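Forum: Protein Structure Q&A
Topic: Joint prediction for protein chains with partners

I've read a bunch of threads here and the consensus seems to be that you should model interacting components together rather than docking separate models afterwards. I'd like to see that in practice. Below is the full input, 478 residues plus whatever partners are listed. Could one of the regulars post the assembled result?
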Amino acid sequence: MREVEKNMKPKELKAYRTQLFRDAEQWKTPDRIPHYGNIVTWKIFDAGYTIDQAMTNFDVMKETVEKFLEKYPIDVLIDIGIRNQFGVTEAFGMGENGYYYYDKEVVGINDHDYCPVDRLMEYIDNKYKYAWEVALPEKIPDFYDKSIDTWKNVWKAYWDYIMFIFKMNKVTGAYGLANGAPNNPMKGTINFGIEEAESNLLGIKKLSIACRRNFDQLKEFCDAWNEKETKPIIEKIMAGEDGPDMKYCFDASLIMLSQNILNPKQFDELYWCYLEPLLKAYEAKGKCPRIFTEGKIDMYADHFADFKKGSLAFHLENDDPWAIREKLPNVCIIGGLTTQLLGTATPEECVDYTKKLIDELGSEGGFILSEDKMLWYRNDCKSENLKAVCEFVSTYELKK
Amino acid sequence: MADEIKTEVAETAQVTEEKTVAAETAAEEAPAAETKPAWPYASYPEGYNKLLNKIMPFWARPMKKMMGDLLIRVLVDG
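Posted by a regular:
Agreed with the consensus. Here's the joint model:
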């Protein structure tokens, strides 16, 4: 870390780091390139624990995050140890009926679906009613047999989890870590009907089939989702203040995944027609959302070509950052570091590659360093490689 | 004709009696049908609110709507 940053108090450092992100997004040359840590459970291994030890013990999880932040001077961390709701599901005795699972080395999620195509409209009519009256009893065979004592234990685990979130926000605040993005202006994360269908309601397999066999029903659902979920967000954005919210590095955080299984016609009719108005609203208000483009986005790059510089940032996963820069010179790129590099190369090779990324993509703004994939597994990264990269990027000053 | 009617009535009565006896026997032999009461918290939001009132501490109840809905999400997505 540079001396000037070492001497900052946590709040000052947090504000400084936020400014680095905002400068990069706005294509102004920042003092140095900010580093968005796309690191999830890898930090558990790095702290000397296994997944099961951290997932079942908030003290261990807190310690892994603290050890990580002591060791690596990162500017934003995508997961501060709070993507961990196993305490609640285990108190409920969900067992093998849960969608998430873990062992010593892995946290995984099974492809799941809890709403058939012909009930999608029932779901959108009242999501919580559907979840409570239909999805949960179907998911958990003994749902109606749970005792009040079990439910009290669920509540306690849930409350402990919420308290842990507050605690971790304090911990990361003490390290001057910047905030990534606010939640959806309504509540929760911003999502689209097609993404909800893929990630929860239909699952990848059934959505793929429904795209061919039940297109009209999917379209009706996506239209209804847009009316009920997306349009109110747009109205709220347009009614809000102009310019970036400097409490955060980005004005919103979106995840795109389902473009990977949609053909161009499906993408236009089930996704883009709802996504574009939202992005245009952010653009009109001088705001910049971060979009985590899981899988690839290059096949739809032309859709984003007309947005103003400073109004979009793509966190790339499998796309080549140089190819995206050529196709989309208006979009800020987040990414560049591959798990292949971090997991197998030498520290010198990692630093050389990082320097090349910064010099070629970020010397005039428009680039934020990050790992392309979330670091989940033990072999996704070598500690000495991440340390060398962090040391380099946090001290490599840019010429203005 | 009258005899035929009497005979038919008698046969019908016989069949009816046999069916009744068989049904009563079957009913006696069969285990008592379970008449389980419906889960009192099965509906949303009424039943769910009742459950929350049972499990949430008093001081947390003003946050019932927000926290209750989030709990459903944790359970259904988790």
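Chain A has a mean pLDDT of 95.
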